[in-house]
Amino acid sequence: MPCLRFGMVAVVLALGVGTTLAQESVRFGVGGGLVRNDADIEGGGDIEGEGAYGIFQARFSNDLLFQISVSGSSDDSDVFDPNSGFILEEEDKLIRTEIAVGYMFLGKSVFRPFIHGGVSLASVTTEIEGVEVIDDSSTAMSAGGGFEIGSGDHHSFFLDLSFDVGHELDLQFGLGSVDFDLSELHLGYLYRF
Q1: Is the Cα dihedral 94, 56, 14, 108 positive or negative?
Q2: pTM score, two decimals?
Q3: Distance (Å, whole) CA 54 – CA 35
Q4: Which CATH architecture has domain 2-192?
Q5: Is the CA virtual torsion 99, 103, 107, 109 positive or negative?
Q6: Between 49 and which of 25, 75, 77, 178 could a Cys-Cys bridge form, CB atoms 3.0 to 4.6 Å apart?
């Protein structure tokens, strides 16, 4: 079901951008960089990870943005199990895909702030001592912002902070679910054609 909702929102956003494309000139960009994320789990705990980030962006002459981004991160940590008194090894993997629209301020300057919002799909796998306890995907609304620095012709460096609110993942073996909010910090490079 999360993939179906994600797909439906993607189609609506694509139709909106397609209408804008017919009326405006557009510059396409691709880029990537580093990602650091933090999933705050409701009821306590978090999943932090580091990894890589990739982005495809369309920037229209009226400074509207359409972007698709994918990030992947992982984290190995030790957790204390109060029931057994043992420290257990935990491995978390997160893949996040976001489709968003946004707006860039000061589009012709060297320093260009931007905002964006859309929908994200988070796929999480968690293993504790080699036993998979989470292997699920969830959609949530996303919002974020940041800035680009560069000539604007082709080369730009960017910093972006994105927030997802309301992810829910089912635990394996029918043990319930986990609710979490996700924040991601992206630092990278974008090349515009």
Answers
A1: positive
A2: 0.82
A3: 9
A4: Beta Barrel (2.40)
A5: negative
A6: 75
